[in-house]
Amino acid sequence: MENSEKTEVVLLACGSFNPITNMHLRLFELARDYMNRTGKFKVIKGIISPVGDAYKKKGLISAHHRVIMAQLATKNSSWVEVDTWESLQKEWIETAKVLRHHQEKLEASSCDHQPDSPVLEKPGRKRKWAEQRSEFSQEKSPEPKRKAMPKVKLLCGADLLESFSVPNLWKSEDITTIVGDYGIVCITRAGNDAQKFIYESDVLWRHQTNIHLVNEWITNDISSTKIRRALRRGQSIRYLVPDIVQEYIEKHSLYSSESEERNVGVILAPLQRYTGHTNSGTTTA
After folding, report:
1. β-sheet bridge partners, residue 154
2. SS3 category, 262
3. Is 257 helix (H, G, I), strand (E, B) or coil?
4. Which stretches does DSSP call E strand in the chain?
5. Which residue, among 21, 176, 182, 45, has the nearest Cα to 100 in the 3D structure?
6. CA 285 to CA 282: how far, in whole Å?
7. How far is the C-alpha of 170 from the C-alpha of 96, rounded, in Å?
8. Least enclosed by CB within 10 Å: which of 80, 97, 122, 277?
């Protein structure tokens, strides 16, 4: 298939990135390899979108630091970048709205690059000749085919698919929008059964052709949770995060027992919004 016939794809990863790890970066590489190999898609960009502080997740440090770490981690990448829009919002923004924001941004950018409207010639013989030349050109040369709009797809791990079944964590219409209108590229981790999650969800089953499952054969179980645990215990995290990120964490003493207690007793933003509760005596991880 020629490149012109392939659908251009922008991979969008939303999440805490608390902190960003080498595994987060590997997700992009695995997804791009898989999508490009299908022969139907061409990945043109990757976007990391850290969630804002209003998400209220336990142990979530300031978006300011999380964004900087993500920027440091991707500064040598030729195609993955960090977008700050979501992290700067005062309220928590649903993933479906983040996808829509980036799709609309792509469409606006595409409109800006459309050819300018033709300029009319001055009245007289020049204009008449221009009209005749235009008619001749239209007869001989068909109008060029308009380039298809790039599509934003959500890049995630299998744990996100599983989270769709958690009561009040997602709006059902948002799940339909995410998988139906945009699509998901899901990297499966060891121990996750993504196919089972799809089978057990009517919505995911209905849109399964828009869910691309990528097997990670070189297993990697790095997670931000384990990174934070190692830091609290004074253990090395070298080779688990980019060196420059490790240096930033150490310089600013970002993760400790105290920081892990942040938002303890506070209900996660989606649960607050969808249940109407504003506080709780239990913690949400």
Report:
1. 12, 184
2. coil
3. helix
4. 7-15, 41-50, 80-82, 151-157, 184-188, 211-215
5. 182
6. 10
7. 10
8. 122
Residues near 148 by beta carbon (within 8 Å), at least 6 away in sequence: 7, 8
Beta-bridge mates of residue 153? 11
The pLDDT value recorded for residue 229 is 97
Q: How far apart are CA 145 and CA 182, in angstroms?
A: 23
Distance, in Å, from the CA atom of 220 to the CA atom of 242, rounded to the nearest integer, reads 15
Q: What DSSP string runs through 127-177?
A: HHHHHHHHHHHHHHSPPPPPPPPPEEEEEEEHHHHHHTTSTTTS-HHHHHH
Cα atoms in the 13 Å half-sphere on the side-chain side of 129 = 4
Instruction: Give CA separation, 195 vs 89, 125, 173, 222, 281, in Å.
Output: 34, 69, 21, 22, 35
Q: Please tell me the distance from the alpha carbon of residue 12 to that of residue 49, in angstroms, as a whole number.
A: 7
| Residue 144: Cβ within 10 Å count | 7
Tell me the C-alpha distance between 190 and 177, whole Å.
28
- Beta bridge partners, 184, equal 154, 211
Task: Measure the CA–CA gap between 65 and 166, rounded to whole angstroms.
Answer: 29
The one-digit pLDDT tens for each residue of the chain (285 residues) are 555 689 999 999 999 999 999 999 999 999 999 999 999 999 999 999 999 999 999 999 999 999 999 999 999 999 999 999 999 999 999 999 999 999 999 999 877 655 443 443 444 544 544 455 555 445 545 555 667 899 999 999 988 999 999 999 999 999 999 999 999 999 996 667 899 999 999 999 999 999 999 998 888 889 999 999 999 999 999 999 999 999 999 999 999 999 999 999 999 999 999 987 766 433 333
